[in-house]
Specification:
54 residues, Ribosomal_S3_C_sf, single chain, mainly alpha, ribosomal protein, ribonucleoprotein
């Protein structure tokens, strides 16, 4: 699986308001099907509308 396609897939999932954990899990499942040795996913910023305040 090409890395740019995988990155676009994750970005599209997040735009469609799918939770980051579900998108990450699905990306890992897709890469496991293609005999990829490993995957590293990095994200930044607030991924949910809920902000933690104390």
């Amino acid at each position: 699986m090409h890395l740019n396609i995988l990155a676009e897939f994750i970005a599209e999932q997040l735009k469609n308001r799918i939770s980051f954990r579900k998108a990450r899990k699905k990306a890992i499942e897709l890469t496991e099907q293609t005999d990829t040795k490993g995957i590293q996913i990095q994200s930044g910023g607030v991924l949910t509308e809920k902000r933690l305040t104390r």
